[in-house]
Amino acid sequence: MSGSEILIKASDGGEFMGYLATPDSGSGPGVVVIQEIFGVNDVMRGITDSFAEAGYMALCPDIFWRQVPGIQLSDQTEAEWARAFELFNGFDLDKGVADLDATIEMLRGQDGCTGKVGSVGFCLGGRLAYLTATRTNADACVSYYGVMLTEHLDETVNAPLVLHIPTEDEYVPKDQQAEVHARLDGNDKVTIYDYQGQDHAFARVGGKHFDQASADAARLRTLEHFKAHLG
Fold first, then answer.
1. Residue 169: which of 147, 143, 141, 142 has the closest Cα?
2. Which domains are delineated in the chain?
3. Which string of DSSP letters, residue by residue, matches the chain?
4. Mean confidence (pLDDT) of the chain
C-alpha cells in the first residue's frame, strides 16, 4: 500500500487536494472516503489506507477546501472542536456534493481503477455519502452515523446504500432515527444496521466513543457491501 496527495479539479474551477492510497497490486475498484468535520487528518488517512490494504484505490478529498484548504484538526481539544463546528456550519452542501461527484469521476478514470467507484463517509461525511447515493453515479455507498439524513428522505436512492446507525447518537435524536427507519426500511436499495448502545463516532479510533467490536462489525459489513457491488 502506498499513499500520496493528488489534485482534483472542481467542476466550477479550482483544484483541491485528495489523499490517494493505492493497493499493493496497483489496481482495484475505487472508494471515495468522505471526511468527518476534522479535515483529511491522520484518522481519515488511516481509514483510507485501510481500504487500500483491502484492495481498493481509496481517495479522501479535502471537502473543506473552499473554506480553509488543507486544514487538519483532531478531536482532542475544545478549540479544535469549536473550529470544526465552524467549518461544518459554513459548509456549502451542494458544492460539497459537486466536489464529491468530481472526485468520484476522477477516481473512476484513474490508472488502475476498474471503473467501479463507491463512497464511504463518517458524520458529515455520512450525510454526504447518503447524498452520493442520491445525486451522483457512485456504484455503492456507505454512511457511518450520518447527520441530518431526515432532510433528504424525499430524494431517490439510486445506488445500493448501507447506513450504520448508533442507537445513542448524540447528534441524531431517536425520533430522527425512527423516521429514517420508517422511510427506508422498505427500500430494497437500503440496508440499515443499528448498533445498540453505541454513540456517535463509535468507529473513530482514539475517540471517546470508540468501540472496537462495533467498529469491526461495521467494517466487515462495509467490505461485504463493496465486494458485492464493486467487485
1. 147
2. 2-230 (3.40.50.1820)
3. -EEEEEEEE-TTS-EEEEEEEE-TTS-EEEEEEE--TTBS-HHHHHHHHHHHHTT-EEEEE-TTTTTSTT-B--SSSHHHHHHHHHHHHT--HHHHHHHHHHHHHHHHTSTTEEEEEEEEEETHHHHHHHHHHHHS--SEEEEES-SSGGGGTTSPP-S-EEEEEETT-TTS-HHHHHHHHHHHTT-TTEEEEEETT--TTTTSTTSTT--HHHHHHHHHHHHHHHHHHH-
4. 97
Is residue 217 pLDDT above 90, yes or no?
yes
Q: Which residues contact 69 (CB under 8 A, 6 or more apart)?
A: 16, 17, 62
The predicted-structure confidence for 74-105, as pLDDT tens digits, reads as follows 999 999 999 999 999 999 999 999 999 999 99
Measuring CA to CA, how many Å separate 141 from each of 3, 13, 130?
A: 22, 26, 7
> Quick one: angle between helices 124-135 and 93-108, nearest 10?
70
Q: Are strands 190-195 and 140-144 parallel, antiparallel or unpaired?
A: unpaired
> What's the whole-number mean pLDDT along residues 183-205?
97
Residue 183 corresponds to which cell in the numbers above?
A: 422511510
> Predicted confidence band at 2 (pLDDT cuts at 50, 70, 90)?
confident
Q: Which helix (H) or strand (E) holds 121?
A: strand 113-122
Written as nine digits, the cell of 12 is 466550477
> Where in the sequence numbering do the catalytic residues fall?
169, 200
Write out pLDDT tens, residues 139-168.
Answer: 999 999 999 999 999 999 999 999 999 999
